[in-house]
Each structure stands twice: as C-alpha cells, then as structure tokens.
Design brief:
Organism: Phenylobacterium glaciei
Protein name: Antifreeze protein
Low-confidence stretches: none
Mean pLDDT: 94
Radius of gyration: 16 Å
Distance between the termini: 45 Å
Strand content: under 5%
Structural class: mainly alpha
Number of helices: 3
Helix content: over 70%
C-alpha cells in the first residue's frame, strides 16, 4: 500500500517552516550585531529572495513544476527547502 503523497508534502512543508524559522533567527542575530556583515547579509537576503522567486516562476512558466497540483506543490516546497537549507548551513558556521 502506498503512503499518502499529501502527507509527505505536509511533513516537507512543516520541515521548511522549522528550517525557515531557524534562518530567521540566525539572520536576526547577525543583523542585530550591525556593521558591514549585517549590511552584506541584508543585501544577500533580498537578492536571493528575488532570484529564487524568479527561478521558480520560470520553472512554472516552462512546465518545470509538472501538471498536477501535488507535483507543483512538492516541487515548489523542494525548491525553497534547498535554498533555506543552504542558508541555515551558511549562517550556522561560526
């Protein structure tokens, strides 16, 4: 018997939320410290949000997200999880 694909998507979305919360906390700490590192982080944050959104829109327009609602949702969550995970790893380094 196959597992419910929507349940996996639910768990992936929940994981995205948890990781995003940690990135928000780490970024807040970095920006609260001020200085050039905070300015660099703020600029990086804005630029990568724009780039990530544009990349996802391009995938949607070219059929890269699939044709089913579940497929599109799963690929969208996976797209953002990769970006958030990379930021969490980068910001967690001392």
């Amino acid at each position: 018997m196959r597992a419910n694909p929507w349940m996996k998507l639910t768990m992936d979305t929940w994981s995205l939320g948890v990781e995003a919360s940690s990135v928000i906390g780490l970024r807040t700490l970095k920006m609260a410290a001020g200085g050039p590192a905070a300015q660099t982080e703020a600029a990086l944050m804005i630029n990568e949000k724009i780039a990530s959104t544009l990349a996802l829109q391009m995938r949607a327009m070219t059929g890269g997200l699939g044709i089913t609602p579940h497929g599109a949702a799963a690929k969208t969550v996976a797209h953002y999880r990769r970006k958030v995970r990379a930021n969490r790893r980068r910001l967690s380094k001392v």
